[in-house]
Structures are given as C-alpha cells and as structure tokens.
Design a protein that fits this description.
about 0% strand; DUF5995; about 260 residues; mainly alpha
C-alpha cells in the first residue's frame, strides 16, 4: 500500500528493515539509512524547523512512495526504473561491500526520485517556495551520514584503504556526493516543474539512464579500487542481519556517544 503521510513512510521502511533482518536481505542496508533520515525529517517537521511542515510531509511521502514503488516492482517481476534495477540487482552479489550498497541506494533515490518528488510537491513556479526547506534537509543528511560512517568504521575495518587508492568512501565522499547530487536534483526539479507531461517523461527517462550509468560505475569501479574492495569485503561480516541491525542503530549509537563523550 502507498504511504499517505510521513508516518507511513517511516513504518514502511521499518517493515523493510525488519523483514530484511529476518531473511538476511541486503536491501536492509540502504533501508536502514533511509529510515533514520526520514525519522530525523519527521522530528524536524514536528519541531517546526521547516517553513511549511505540511508541505514537507507531502514531499517526503511522495519521495518515499517512489522508493516503495521501485522496491515493489523489483520484487514483483524485476521491473522498475533502470537505476533501481541496477541497485537491487546487486543485493545477492557477495562481492559488493556495504558502502557500495549504501551509495547505490543514495544514487538512485537522489539522482532520480528526488527531483520528481520535489516537482510534484511544487508544480510550476510553486517549486521555488520549496527551496529553503529543501536545503535544510542537507543538514539532516549530514548528521545521519556522519553517524552511519561511525558504523561503517566498525563494520568495514579496512574501509580506509579506499583513501589510499584515491577513492574516498568516508563521510566526506558520502556527504559530498549527497550534497552535490541534491543540488543537481534541485535544478532538475525546477526543470520538471515547468515542463509539459511529454517533456517530463523525456527528462525522467534521461535522469534514470544517467543514474543507471552511475550505478554501474559505483558497482564496478576500475583501477586500484577493485582489488581494494575485494580486501575490504574479505574483512566484512557475512552476518547480514547483524550488519542491518548495526546500521539501523547508527543515530542511537551516535547520540549515546555524545552523551558519554
């Protein structure tokens, strides 16, 4: 069932995380990250941080439903947007490391879904009123990414190897790629908001193709990155439910560390 509000989005993501934990499905990696972002956005709405909380609730609901639709399409018949097919298609790949799964989900959801959801929330010139609240989410994303990075440091002891081969995957690449992608998504949202239905379809197709290409590059990087990833993978736990549980507690663990630090 589609989500009707942000509470439904949180509950739907929690269900995916819970089921993935029971079955050992790596779809729970990104879902755990996404759930925590959504919980933080909901808290910001309730705390009056956004200029228009009701609008942000609608926006987050549209955004979440795009993920749910892609996930349902994949489970049903391996269909859905190209970039999500690339992402979900690697869930059973034992060589893909945890951080790749996270970035693949971020890539598809931001480089495709975010612009579409923003344009639907503010069609036409109304999209410009969304700009302030859209930018506020960057701060929320940064906090969650930093917390998840702490989890990755525990789960992937050799992750720092990627720094040595020029492929940073610490909080800086995650934060930078998210901010960079969100800025591009904003420009695409403004474009989509002013287009006709036919033009929107063509733009969404283009965004999907681009995100799918990026997904393939994330999944199969070249140069020295590939052997580094193999070494990183050899040190990561094969206990998928435990990894999901650890990622899903990232914000809770970060808060506890701040209280005791």
């Amino acid at each position: 069932m589609p989500a009707n509000n942000i509470d439904d989005v949180v509950d739907g993501l929690a269900d995916i995380v819970r089921e993935a934990g029971h079955t050992g499905d790596r779809v729970g990696y990104f879902a755990a990250l996404y759930r925590q972002v959504t919980v933080e956005v909901r808290a910001a709405i309730h705390g009056g941080r956004f200029e228009d909380g009701a609008r942000m609730d609608r926006f987050d609901t549209l955004f979440g439903n795009r993920y749910f639709d892609a996930y349902d399409a994949w489970r049903r018949d391996r269909s859905g947007p190209r970039c999500w097919r690339e992402t979900f298609g690697l869930l059973d790949d034992a060589d893909t490391v945890i951080v790749q799964h996270l970035i693949l989900g971020v890539n598809a959801h931001i480089n495709l879904d975010l612009a579409v959801a923003a344009a639907q929330t503010g069609p036409g010139k109304a999209v410009h009123a969304l700009r302030h609240d859209f930018l506020l989410i960057n701060d929320i994303l940064t906090r969650v990414v930093l917390a998840v990075q702490d989890s990755l440091d525990v789960l992937s002891p050799f992750l720092s190897l990627l720094d040595k081969v020029g492929a940073r995957t610490d909080e800086r690449i995650l934060d930078f790629s998210v901010r960079q992608s969100r800025e591009e998504a904003w420009h695409n949202a403004v474009l989509l908001a002013g287009q006709s239905e036919e033009q929107r379809e063509a733009t969404i197709e283009r965004l999907d193709v681009r995100a799918a290409v990026l997904a393939r590059l994330i999944a199969r990087p070249g140069g020295l990155v590939r052997p580094a990833l193999h070494l990183i993978r050899s040190t990561e736990s094969d206990d998928v439910p435990a990894v999901i549980a650890h990622l899903d507690r990232a914000m809770e663990q970060a808060s506890a560390a701040r209280r005791t630090g």
